[in-house]
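> call design_seq(struct)
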């Protein structure tokens, strides 16, 4: 419980610091999000080629690629979590907003701010404990159980990074809802990716 209280203080301090430099920080975050989305798409493309090659090797040449299942499993969280903040910024997550749509505009804005603030703390907790887990995986030099023994810490680190950036993006969105004139929207442009509207 002590750890969560310290984490809450750190999150509030980071929110205060982010508020001071919100505009320039928002532009930097936008660039990072687009870069990570491109990295996630590249990893997805590699995973597609890798799985295709494994199928061809297994059924065409009766020589499966060692560790193919483990590597595919390790790549999936990287693909998801590197693109998490970008998806939040472009409003690409699936949402249930039927009740919100029936509220008056001002009440809807307040409800969205409260929801985002709660989500920030949830994402911060998930980022913190994911980072601790990734650090433990690094210290133990943890690897998969079968050859060629892939290291597991990059997957854990991607989860922590994804949640941390998503929390930061949500706070930028809170500022934009709170005072749109002072904190203009600085969400990433599509960069070739399109969220479902």
């Amino acid at each position: 419980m002590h750890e969560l209280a310290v984490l809450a203080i750190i999150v509030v301090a980071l929110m205060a610091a982010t508020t001071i430099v919100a505009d320039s920080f928002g532009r930097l975050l936008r660039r990072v999000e687009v870069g990570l989305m491109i990295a996630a798409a590249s990893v997805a493309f590699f995973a597609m080629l890798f799985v295709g090659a494994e199928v061809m090797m297994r059924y065409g040449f009766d020589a499966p690629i060692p560790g193919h299942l483990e590597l595919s499993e390790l790549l999936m969280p990287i693909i998801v979590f590197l693109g998490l903040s970008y998806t939040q910024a472009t409003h690409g997550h699936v949402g249930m907003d039927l009740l919100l749509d029936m509220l008056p505009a001002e009440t809807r804005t307040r409800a969205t701010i409260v929801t985002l603030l709660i989500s920030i703390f949830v994402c911060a907790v998930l980022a913190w404990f994911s980072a601790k887990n990734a650090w433990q995986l690094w210290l133990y030099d943890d690897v998969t159980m079968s050859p060629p023994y892939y290291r597991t810490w990059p997957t854990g680190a991607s989860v922590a990074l994804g949640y941390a950036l998503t929390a930061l993006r949500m706070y930028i969105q809170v500022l934009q809802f709170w005072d749109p004139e002072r904190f203009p929207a600085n969400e990433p442009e599509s960069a070739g990716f399109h969220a479902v509207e």
